[in-house]
Amino acid sequence: MQFLIESGDVLLEGFLSTLRMLALTVLLAVPLGILLAAMRISPVPTLRWVSAGFTELLRNTPLTLVFFLLVFVLPRLGVIVDFQISAIAALTLYTAPFYAEAIRSGINSVPSGQAEAARSLGLTFGQTASLVIIPQAIRTVVPPLINVTIALTKNTSVAGGFLVFELFASSRRLANNYADETIAIFLVVAACYLAITIPLGRLADQLEKKVAVLR
Amino acid sequence: MTSVLYDVPGPRARRRALIASIITGIALAGALAWVIVTLTGEGLFDADRWDVFRDPVVWGALGGALLVTLQVAAIASVLAVLLGSVFALLRLSRLKVVRVPTTVVLEFLRGMPVLLMMFFILIMFATSQYWAVVMGLALYNGAIIGEALRAGIVALPKGQREAGLALGMTPLLTRLLVEFPQAFRAMTPIIVAQLVVLLKDSSLGYIVGLEELVRRQRTLAEFYGFSQYGFSFFVITLFAFLIVNLVLSMLARRLASRDPAGRASRRAARKTTGENADTTAIASIRTRRSEAQPPVAPPSDHGGGDGGN
Asked: What residue intervals traverse the membrane (chain A) (predicted)?
């Protein structure tokens, strides 16, 4: 455990960088996901197509390739930004469609009788959506949203392969410097990730149980 | 489509939708035109950006790398499904000595990035990059598939197991011959969706140093001059991935609709969000259950399949 004493700060710095990246991506990707989901169910066909096209495109592209575009290709086209920003942009673009799908399936899970009741009371599309459907959908949507966030947490590690210093990159550096302690380094770094993902998973489970009782 | 959210549009609503459609259409066309003009301005559609692709050697190199990607994904898929089956059975064992360690291992495997797993397999076992990627993908996806299968077994009506036991089969035989096949069938769409994720994740080999498609296109682009060909190679690679993944996704959907096992799996396939195989599993389970009996708390499950990881 020599590395922890000597280079604990490297690890801590990486961990904080991962957390920062995660927080910023969630803050950007959730609103974008909501927007995509809203477009997907809107009465305007073009908006639906745009949203569906964007979703299909990004869901079938490996995250590595999205990173490659933003980190290596775009700078050649004159778009030069900090690697941190490129990484957050890549993660946001990649994750937003998954948030959108989670939200959309939540909206679909609201029994259609609810929408019918609202419609028969004369509520408009906007009123139906904002007063009846969404408040109910949010409940079922939260656990899948957390699951997407868990996947995102794991995905932040890809940034480590694209010139961003975060937890995975710090583990690489440590593994280089302390070749005889790789197993310990691996376990400590894995524990750092698990410290984020397992509590989030437990939270999702709890909420899921709550929702199941309600409906 | 949740068309129940709004009325069948009348003339006024139709006109408004049309206007909104046209406005977004124009905005979209404008954005597209701007991108094309910018790219043309950078000379990206000039012949000298694409002339390398006249050389069959380039296509051969790219094709070979695509083959590596597919091969890695294929081997890892088979291993992941096998591992997943074993994990599911061990996880449901009646023996605590088996069940508890399996649970811990599964949590561990699902909770961390595949990339981390690949990297440390590479240096701890001193394997080739190829096997590091294969084993990383197999372990991670095996854990996720295992959880899906477990959820599938747990969700089966109790009568299935009881019938097996009543016929005098041992508990193990009941699990293997009665419960497991049904669960596997119900979970097929979810497993296939996870395998598409696995294929995408094989591109993480790029970071570990495996000469797969993403790395090969970079090597080629750099060999011929990145500033000149970087964009072209990227576009070709993107299309290669899109084609392979879309075909696979279509296959998955076909598989799901052909499956005679039941409505539940079809529903699951429709809802499958690719990345979140787990969530979908729960959704389909809940619908199945509510048909048979009052809703019960769904099996605990977390982790979100991955996409990119």
From this structure: 21-41, 61-81, 182-201
How would you class B198 by CB atoms within 10 Å of its CB: exposed for 0-12, middle for 13-18, buried for 19 or more?
Answer: buried
Q: Decide if pLDDT at B198 tops 60.
A: yes
B157 pLDDT band, cuts 50/70/90, is: very high
- With CA atoms as reference, the chain B residue closest to A148 would be B304
Residue A77, domain extent: 2-214
Chain B residues within 8 A of A41 when measuring between CB atoms: 1-2, 5
pLDDT at residue A200, rounded to an integer: 93
Contact across the interface for B201 and A62, Cβ inside 8 Å: yes
| Per-residue pLDDT reduced to its tens digit, B54-108 | 888 889 999 999 999 999 999 999 999 999 999 999 999 989 999 999 999 999 9
Q: Given a cut of 70, is residue B270 above it in pLDDT? A: no
Contacts of A168 (CB under 8 A, 6+ apart): A14, A18, A156, A157, A159, A160, A161, A189, B113, B115, B116, B119
Q: What is the ipTM of this complex?
A: 0.87
- Mutation target among A21, A57, A61, A95 for the B interface, most CBs of B within 10 A: A61
Task: Tell me the fold of B55-292.
Answer: MetI-like fold (1.10.3720)
Query: How many domains does one find in chain A?
Result: 1
Q: Do A61 and B115 touch (CB under 8 A)?
A: no
Give contacts of A94 with chain B, Cβ < 8 Å. Answer: 307-308
**Contact (CB<8Å) B5/A161:** no
B126-133: average pLDDT: 93
Give the CATH number, domain containing residue A140. Answer: 1.10.3720.10
Distances (CA, A) of B179 to A77, B111, B193, B285: 56, 27, 22, 15
DSSP states of B56-111: HHHHHHHHHHHHHHHHHHHHHHHHHHHHHHHHHHHHT-S-HHHHHHHHHHHHHHHH
Q: Which of A46, A73, A148 sits opposite B24 (nearest CB)?
A: A46
Candidate from A69, A157, A194 with C-beta closest to B234: A69
